[in-house]
């Protein structure tokens, strides 16, 4: 059995866009290793090329422009969402059974709190809405209303989570025009940049780590769960 610290959660960051199927395969492999006691828990930060994902509740009519970007069916909960450059993805592979028992709602609520606390470091007030998973901001302009700044889509298999959160730092928000994001047509989307909080991805990563550690416990620097072949496929120009 591998020698690792069970009390600490690994924290990995991959630079450059990671193809979605490569990331999903890596997550599933790591989640199985966590279940079997062969690897530590892990949070993996990355970006994807521009694409749409369709969760297990996705409705065909919510894909408004099927030819705009590649579409990937995925096993996470939720409906359609956009991923792309300028958006920080945090895939969360945790032993939910050990940490939260059967209370999945408490787990999701803690992920939401993680995002809210991170946004607070940038002077943004994130809010939670019953029945709408994710984190929202209220625009002072009444015409804009509430807009979503971060999405959550989780799958739990045999007590271990994978998939995770997506926080809009500075993505191309026009790509959301091709879908009904998360099946909610009455509210728009926003980003830190759109809210006037221009910052680097590294600064966001540091804020995410601080907020996560306060809620879930200590993290240690870790390698991303990509094997050599997958890493080569995800390299720029591959």
Describe this structure in words.
- It is a single chain.
- With 238 residues, this protein is of the alpha/beta class.
- It has a single domain, classed as BirA Bifunctional Protein, domain 2.
- Helices cover 26% and strands 29% of the residues.
- The chain contains five helices and twelve strands.
- The chain has helices spanning 20-35, 96-100, 104-120, 201-216, 228-234, and strands spanning 9-17, 42-47, 51-54, 71-73, 80-83, 87-93, 127-129, 132-138, 146-157, 160-168, 188-189, 219-221.
- Strands 1, 2, 6, 7, 8, 9, 10, 11 and 12 form a nine-stranded mixed beta sheet that branches.
Task: Write a brief caption for the model.
The protein has five helices and twelve strands.
